[in-house]
Amino acid sequence: MTWAPLLRLKEALGPDAELVIVGGAVRDERLGRAHADWDLATRLLPQAVMDRARAAGMKVIPTGLQHGTVTVILEDRPVEVTTFRSDGDYLDGRHPESVRLGVELAEDLSRRDFTINAMALRLDTCGGGGDLVDPFGGQADLASRTIRAVGDPLQRFAEDGLRPLRACRFAAQLGFEVDAATLAAIPARLDVARKVSVERVFTELDKLLRGAEPERGLALLAETGLLDLWLGELRPMIGCGQNRHHMHNVWEHTLQVVRLAPGESGFRWAALLHDAGKPGTRTLGPDGEVHFYGHETRSLDLAEAILERLKASHALRKEVAALIRHHGTHPTDAWSDAACRRLLKKLAEDALPLDHWAAFRLADQRGKGLDLESSERQHGALMARLEALAAAAPPLSIRDLALNGAALMALAGRDGGPWLGELQRQLLEAVLEDPGLNTSEGLADLAIKHLGRS
Fold first, then answer.
1. Where does 4-144 sit in CATH, by number?
2. Do 206 and 261 touch, CB atoms closer than 8 A?
3. pLDDT of residue 126
4. pTM score above 0.85
5. Contact (CB, 8 A) for 147 and 176
6. The domain at 146-230 falls in which architecture?
7. Domain ranges of the chain
8. How many CA atoms does the CB half-sphere of 4 hold within 13 Å?
9. What pairs with residue 311 in β-bridges?
10. pLDDT attached to residue 384
11. Which stretches does DSSP call E strand in 102-143?
12. DSSP code for 74
């Protein structure tokens, strides 16, 4: 959205409204970052905002009158407008028991979480932002790349248990350091953080993982104890040594894979959880070599339990499970074309695109930290081969067979039954070995031979 509709709203509300942009939009404007939302604040009470905006022909929705918030639709986009307010006591660790409307702007800004979010930008009449209102040094903290609580961090975190997690999330998104006093206050407020709903926790964790530096945010979770609140199953990964195929321990490797994986939720959650099962499956062989037999299955079980507990969507859980299930598959030059086609078949059964599997595999390989040039060269050769095989559109499922079930029943002169499924599986195995057999005549010959043996 451009500045123009905001300025039209300013004009509609009148010169006494003291309409300002607040919160993350100000922070991102000062950083030159793209942002989706404009949050506005005003001296006017909610009813006055609604009356004046409607008088100017604007659509208004009373979305949160108890908190002083109304939503104005500008260019088909909702923009929240909240009356300057102060908050009463926080008893549930998340919401104030009461709010007081009609305070001064500086008092409104004082209730916000971090200095970089406690600035306001006045709307001027020339287009764009006008004067910056910055009573707590947010601009200086932006310049020094610091996340600092407004006022006493212990008080800020006692008010809202989500704020400690937000500090870690902003560190991951912005690549900022958390101020020492702010960071030190987090462990003392874990009891408040524990009260936050899992839905809100998942949203923050998801944003953290999709940040530009997710490894920074994850390290902060581990350092402050927040990891143990919501992802306690991952604590044994920290310091868990690996074998000669890895430069890093399990946790450090995981942080690298999260950093290197594509920035979408599925990739980043899979990266975080793909080796969660390693500590529980770690064994030492007679030769002194460390092994993690069966860790893929254990990691998959842990990932599904964690994402279910966090109430992640079914689609995300399915995507993460597919990536984890296949992350331990390592094709080599010795694989036959048939073996490669069987891999393509397994990926197709999990609705996992080849390029997604490849991107995740590459991140995992790079995250090992060893012989990167050779690893990437081998990966490139492997993908060229797999992509060529996939481009030939080989039959990968029973649906791809040149003879369907009805044709096979007619050929056998029998009604359907368990025999039919077994025959189709046998035919699919044959055409995976040799796709040239996937013709009506070829499959009919194979079916007759199979039926004659059964």
1. 3.30.460.10
2. no
3. 45
4. yes
5. yes
6. Orthogonal Bundle (1.10)
7. 4-144, 146-230, 234-394, 398-453
8. 3
9. none
10. 95
11. 120-123, 129-133
12. E
